[in-house]
Amino acid sequence: MQILDMTGFMEGGIVVESAFFEKVKEFDWESLRDKRIMVKGCGTTIIPPWAFMVVTSRLTGVAKSVRYGNEHSSIPIFRKSRREAVNVEK
Length: 90
Known about the structure:
Elements: E1 2-5, H1 17-26, E2 36-40, H2 49-59, E3 65-69, E4 74-79, H3 82-89
Parallel strand pairs: 1-2, 2-3
Antiparallel strand pairs: 3-4
C-alpha cells in the first residue's frame, strides 16, 4: 500500500486554500494509477474535511483503492469494483 501524506499539500503546517488547490493541480495523480493508497492525515495537524474530499475525488479516478488513517488503523473509503479492475487489465 502506498501512503499519500496530506502534509505534502500543506504550507507551513496549515492548509492554505489557494496553495492547497495549486498543489493538488500540480500533483502527478497518474503516478498512483491502479495502486492501493492510504491517505495519511492523522496526527497533530488539523486538516479540514473538505481537503480530504478534494484528494479523494482525484484518487477515485486513478487508484485501485483508497483508505484513510495510518499504518495501524484505517478506514476504507473507495475500492474499484471487480468489473472495473478486470476492464483495466484488458
